[in-house]
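Look at a sample.

——
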Amino acid sequence: MKTILKIARAELRNLFFSPVAWFLAVVFMIQCAVFYSGLIYNWSKMQELGMKSPKFKGFDLSFTKIIYLDRDGIFVNVMMNLYLFIPLITMGLLSREVSNGSIKLLYSSPVKTRQIVFGKYLAVMLFNLLLVSIVGIFMVAGAFNIRQVDFGMLLSASLGFYLLICAYAAIGLFMSSLTTYQIVSAIGTFILIFILSRIGSLWQDIDFVRDLTYFLSISGRTEKMLFGLITTKDLFYFFIVISMFIGFTLLKLKSGRESKPKYVTFSKYLALVVCAVLLGYVTSRPALTGYLDATAEKSNTIHPRVQKIVKGLTEEPLEVTLYTNLLGKNAGAGFPEGRNKYLSGLWEQYQRFKPDMEFKFEYYYDLSPDSYYFRSFPGKSIHDIAKEVAKAMDLDLNKFRTPEEMKKIINLEEEGYGLVMQVKYKGKTTFLRTFQDGGMWPDEAQVAAALSRLQNLQMPKVLFISGNLERDPFIFGERGYSIGAGAKENRPSLVNNGFDVDTISLDHRDILSEKENIAMVVLADPKTELSAIKKEKIQQFINGGGNMLILGEPGKEDLLNPLMTTLGVQFDKGNLIQVSKHNTPDILGPFLTDSAAYLADEHKLIQFRTKFIDSLYTGMESVTPVVYSDTGSFAIQPLVKAMPQVWLKRGKLVKDSVQPVINIAEGDHKNGPFMPVVALSRKQNNKEQRIVVAGDADFMSNRYLGGDYLGRGIYCWLDHQEYPVYGPRPIPKDNVIKITPNTASALKVSFVWILPAAVALLGSIILIRRKRK
């Protein structure tokens, strides 16, 4: 060990008595300073502008991520350019010894080859610590410049950064042993790092080769550590790669001192590679992988609510089959070349808590009869179209099942023949869909809902009453409710978040709450009068403690008011008016009340609940107010409140003429505040009964995206907050810059100019004194 330390000290002396090391240190420091100080300055200016508002409480983002890990952050940019630094440090480690003949002296001395290699590599590891310490300067600065900076994330990122440069150094050490020319060694290191960075994207359509190249690829290995998630398989990967290239170096130096056949030497290299691959395979198994989420808010870990559902799958493995249609939506993400990204990006976070997952992949081609492909390829069959598409995408059509073969396995017509997953547990199956909204893969809420279906006999059911021209949960027009309820292709819809959605005609069926596990019944804007039997069944459901969502429109008050007599609420007659030069007078922008903030763990509602934002509003059109009294059995809370300037017009409203004015003679008045939406609750049959009444049916329609966060919040509240399974993340604590733009500007001068100049001056003094000696 003493010999290794002596060699390391001698090598460090050579490094720091060389202008290359000092030059690289200065350039590296300037690079870090430019990215850090530039971002701090720009954000401090934005914050100064925001603080002019007394309501400003910080940004809804993490400055630890923005300053250090974002696209313009320190770590991302310095790691992109590492391949320019490390080869210049390692190019002379062994090639210099060989070229000047000192390697022969080392061989003739009582120094072992491994001591030479380990000593040289230890010196580079210590120099790498210098680079980490330079980044550490800006981490310490961040502690003073950012409120509650996430040190766990930064330490994890520093570890990933250090392991990556050590891996590059091991590659450089090996390349240095191959040649006596330092420039050739540096170029060889550049090339090998480039190959290892790109090899993960090569031959991804071949199963065995895909797994091999994915293991060998160094690209993306630090991504999880950069964002605070340390995994044992990533640690083992760097240990294996470093050990493999150090082993290559030892074999190269020993082969230069031994006279053995080339096939013997080659077999040793091959054995080392095989051992590395096998060890990498074993250490990357989900059951053997350990995880440490070092972030302050555990942002890399699925929410505890989702964890509970995943951990409930204990009796047998979870089987996940990905069905990829050559001619379907999102097909590219399901092809073999995207498989590793699919597994690591989507499923690894769940495998952490359920290691025994089995993944299967099916490839096929099929089309619905009205597909645009038939219009694009007139006169051609599905098989002909598939051949053309496969040829254009350079794919082997023989790997895809025909429609006839696929229908013998499963019929995916109801799923639109898109990219879809089927999850299976204990013989029970359900679909997990992909979407065309930018994110594509399902979020925690959709995965949790699908896994819950596998464990529960029944899921909560939402029944939409039909038969009187009510809003339909499966219609895609403006009046329909499909976006928020029955659209399988829409991520936030009820069917993708744990609910079963159906319509019910009360002329033929009764509402059986207990038997059918009904979460709520929706009566949305009937246009004709309900029959006596329908009214009776609805009243029985309410009296039995069932949850309801009742939505009406102006001019139809008489159709619904008789049903709500026992509730203590009624729809007033008339239209609410909000005069605006931009919209027709019946379009409102009412605000949510404090009670609405607690409907669900929607991100916007959490921000409102915690007073991070001071108000939220929603869009409404053609609204009649809900009037109520507190004398009934229900506790009533308004959810939406019209703005103070809103007034009620009882007479006929003409929207496409001059702006309406209050006509007292017709009964118009401004005796607000007006409440378009209210929530009712009471104890009934040993449970809490919940009802929401809204004087507008449009705000939850497709035109208004299903009511957005308010609509989803209402559905969730009526289901007693069981579904959707929200995994809310707290507002980041490191969301405020603690310095002014003037201070940030001074820091920029100090970090970009003064500090690097001081380091350059120190290096110059050391080099000059060394030369004089």
